[in-house]
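Researcher: Going back to the complex we discussed earlier. I've cleaned up the inputs and rechecked each line, so this should be the final set. Can you rerun the prediction on the complete assembly and write out the structure?
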Amino acid sequence: MMRTDGAPLSIQEYEQQGGYQGLRKAFQFNPEEITQMVKDAELQGRGGAGFSTGTKWSFVPMGKSAPETKYLIVNGDEMEPGTFKDRLLLEGNPHQMLEGIIISAYAIQASEAVIFLRWAYKMSANRLARAISEAEQAGYIGKNILNSGFNIKVSIHTSVGRYMCGEETGLLSALEGKRSLPRAKPPFPQISGLFGKPSIVNNVETLCCVPHIMDKGPNWFKGLSNGDGGGTKLYGASGNVRNPGIYELPLGTPLNELIEVHAGGMIDGYQFRAALPGGASTDFLTTEHLEVKMDFKSVSACGSRLGTGTIIVLDDRTCPVGFVHNLEHFFAQESCGWCTPCREGLPWVEKILKSIEDGEGQQEDLGVLQEHTVGLGPGMTFCALAPGAMAPLKSALKYFKTDFEAHIQQKRCTYKNN
Amino acid sequence: MLTEKEIAKIDLEVSHLPYKGAACIEALKIVQQERGWISDESIHLIAEYLEISAEEVDSVATFYNLIFRKPVGRHVILICDSISCWVVGYENILTALKNRLKINYGETTEDDRFTLLPIPCLGTCDRAPAMMIDNDLHRDLTEEKLDDILNQYQ
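Model: Rerun complete. Updated structure for the full complex:
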């Protein structure tokens, strides 16, 4: 549901197209039933982890013994390089997300919702602020919404930049006015989150699915998918493809359909070589994976992750070493410095990649890089930043080894004319 | 001293929060909006007002990319240096910008008009390369477009 001219849907336009019907229906159920419906719909978190949204909600303490203050927090930090899907939802149809927020807050009986927005999304912030005031006037936000007895406050917090704000617990730290350092789990945010209160952090796209599950039912939502998990997915493509953009397609749409049909194939003179399926922190998929269904389970089976589903295409004229160097520069810069392997390891990796790209690499460097993919891998660091950073490096060393070696042997970037 | 306007804005933020110190980031944003950047003096004023240590405020101020601990020009150019912009050649745009403005990253033009900084992915990868100047997003950048864009900011 979007206008073609890029303007946001007003509350009237949204209502005319069935908006806020899901909310009306939601109040006919008790909160636990809604959580069950979201589980049955097989909605998986769209921020990148793909965890069952209903299951996540089910960990929140409910009933009379639960704390009075509970938070629903929207992760709108979208800072994963190559990812631009939430911007579209925030700018194009802010009411859809608000409706998702209100229903989800009702499901976990949250008293407050906080939308954490990326600093750069100025237009999203303006449009959301207007949508919130429209929804307040219409009685969808505030006290005793639609005579349900349910109350919710919704506010916006804009970030001041840092990739770590997108990490669930780092985001909570930022909302408390601190450095966005990750926190140890347990306790999980569902039990002790923002200001020590039970909190759910959901991605923008995840919440935008919720009104449709309420309105049309879990089975309808589940049936939209073409793979594992329910619903549609916002896929995207950037790089040297003909029609870079965002496309809403059944979850599980194959990678080659995404590239050839929706992204329009490669620009003349460029050939597809590989792609990161869902942002900078995912492993490369190559031509051998073109048939893969782009759902969380199938992409994992290929040794990568669906992540955010916005693919970044590597073509045959772009240097894979330079490509990975760009990614590792980002991760090294954005490491919060909290744990040693990440703080010390990532700048090291970045320097080695730069020296290889500049023609100053040594054969032993490849071994050092390989060691880092283990030492900074899953389980070795405090949060997922470093393992995410190692995903493209590890897969690049596997798929583009001859390129790394050619750089070292010829003492130059083999993709530059010199 | 914090101005009355700054205090009023900070108080409004504090009113939504369980304790004063939680408004640290908001207070930094408010003071930066009024003064352009965060000086050592501003750090101390915020610390005193929020009843937390100056070191704590500075640790937050220096952590976030968009809190400026040095003076910046009237307009801040943030050019995306992340992967999708790199693939389509943002480096040519960066070189052209540096040549036109005669500054490097982190520097301000002599007339205080522009400060140039890199920024991670701006989330507009289908229209790369991209940059922001102040609150405005500029996309599908080419060298030819730069003069017209820069002329909008005096």
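Model: Worth noting: The beta strands of chain B are 75-80, 114-119, 131-133, 136-138.
Researcher: Good, that matches what I expected from the previous run.
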